[in-house]
Amino acid sequence: MTQTTKTLTCLLIILVPGALQAAGKRPPNIVLLLADDLGYGETGCQGNSQIPTPHIDSIANNGVRFTQGYVTAPFCSASRAGLLTGRYQTRFGYEFNPTGAHNEDLDAGLPLGERTLADVLVDAGYITALIGKWHLGGTARFHPLRRGFDEFFGFLHEGHYYVPPPYQGVTTWLRRKVLPGGGQGRWLSSDGRLIYSTHMGYTEPDYDADNPIYRGGQPVQETAYLTDALTREAVDFIDRNAESPFLLYLAYNAVHSPLQGAQKQMQRFAHIPDIQRRIFAAMLANLDDSVGAVLAKLRAEGLEENTLVFFISDNGGPTKELTSSNLPLRAGKGSVYEGGLRVPFLAQWKGRLPAGLVYRHPVISLDVFATAVALSNARLKRDRVYDGVNLIPYLTEKNTARPHQQLFWRTGNRTALRAGDWKLLRNPQRRAEPTWELYNLADDSGEENNLAETQPAKLDELRRVWEKVNGEMIDPVWNPRR
User: Fold this and answer.
1) Given a cut of 80, is residue 221 above it in pLDDT?
2) What is the CATH number of the domain that holds 450?
3) Does 395 have pLDDT greater than 70?
4) Chain Cα centroid distance, residue 208
5) What gap in Å lies between CA 284 and CA 311, rounded to an integer?
6) pLDDT-derived band at 16, boundaries 50, 70, 90
7) Does residue 172 lie in a domain region?
8) Last residue of some domain: 395, 418, 439?
9) Above 70 in pLDDT, residue 6?
10) Percent of the chain residues topping a pLDDT of 90
């Protein structure tokens, strides 16, 4: 994005809210539904016929499906940092993914100088809630209640069991380095409700260690299947705040591991022979039903025409771990190939956005922040660059240009730049030398034909652009490898 474009974007974000305020109109509610590790090809509207997702699909049917919707990082924490600030997280040195005990490193969290969407909207008169996964700092100073959220129900680390041991009411699939009693392969309990697998070569992370479910600032004992519990809290939040403008950030941990499918959902997919895939299907169906419950509550409260709903995933799916499909894209979570960065991305605003629109220009999760701020009565500080754009003019054809001329990604030695239909990237395997690759996504969305050797002029051109954009970023503030 050029500096001129950035300036115009910031002006647009600042000026539109003033017009709303002058007209005395109540700004729209913002509901942000975030799936976790959901691959590009896994919803019905994206082409999956195996696992019905009618409620998620209804957002596309009643609104917009973005065929080239991106996030800012191929894994959870950095992606959420970009989403909630409207800024490339590499602008403020937040580049890596704290897991396990690293969640409680003193510097592992969204830098305190960054304002979240909740910070901004609270100052505009919104009631704000985070329900679900935070993963932007596990120590007190990074707590969601200190980052603009009026309410919080959820957990702070990268993952959580849906049902804790002894795993009642679910079928559970867990990774193990060695099977109980020794050996490799799969181990099944006598009732078929617990499966261990060594196919990943390591044991399931200790997600629940020092990572309770919180209500506000206090841990609580939750007995419901976690996806259902988060939905219950979201519906209750809408019920209590229907008369005020609100931001509901509903960050599901589904379909992130551990794989645990509720029995009522498992029965729906008894026809799927592979038990790992069957559990994944049950988890996705549960997520879809939960999205349906939230949408139904908005309808029941008469809020559909004054609520902008986004549905996205935080990154591509980890296929081997979850069976999650990113087809027709290459690779998945952790990579800067399309399968790691391009995600299901939907938006609905009844009566304001065209129903059934398929939008084919690239957009990015940063645009959620910019769009929400532009529609509210919020004001942004002018002391920083924001990288998103207000999508509404593009979706209503008031602006027929591309929202972005270029997009940028960097996570350690993996990095990428998209300029028009061209994509430059480095995605080295472990201990391998990073080398540049070049693809034309207009006719090669699967990134099968590396043009780095046959298009040296274009490669050099994009490298110069990458170096300029990368020069605007800073080194990581926190790095688990140090």
Assistant:
1) yes
2) 3.30.1120.10
3) yes
4) 21
5) 14
6) very low
7) no
8) 395
9) no
10) 92
Mean confidence (pLDDT) of the chain:
94
| Shared-domain flag, residues 380 and 424 | no
Domain for residue 401, yes or no? no
* φ, ψ of residue 260 in degrees (nearest 5): -140, 115
Give the pLDDT band of residue 61 (cuts 50, 70, 90): very high
The reply to whether 361 and 434 lie within a common domain is no
Would you please indicate which residues are annotated as catalytic (active-site) residues? 76, 135
**175: in domain:** no
> Order of strands across the sheet with 29-35?
218-220, 213-215, 151-155, 127-133, 246-251, 29-35, 307-313, 345-348, 64-66, 357-359
Query: What band does 381 get if pLDDT is binned at 50, 70 and 90?
Result: confident
Q: Identify the domain containing residue 94 by its residue range.
A: 3-160+218-395
Sign of the dihedral defined by the CA atoms of residues 265, 176, 337, 472, in that order: positive
Contacts of 202 by beta carbon, 8 Å cutoff, 6+ apart: 175, 177
Distance CA 149, CA 130 (A): 6
CATH number of residue 347's parent domain? 3.40.720.10
Strands 357-359 and 64-66: parallel
What does the block give as tokens for 69? 């919707």
Residue whose tokens read 């959420």: 80
CA distances from 19 to 94, 208, 265 (A): 34, 47, 47
Overall number of domains in the chain: 2
Q: Do residues 219 and 212 lie in contact, with contact meaning Cβ atoms separated by under 8 Å?
A: yes
How is residue 239 written in tokens? 């019920």
The domain boundary, picked from 395, 429, 451, lies at 395
- Asked whether residue 411 is domain-assigned, the answer is yes
Structure tokens at 436: 């540049």
Same domain, 324 and 461: no
Buried b (16+ CB within 10 A) or exposed e, 272-301: beebbbbbbbbbbbbbbbbbbebbebbeeb
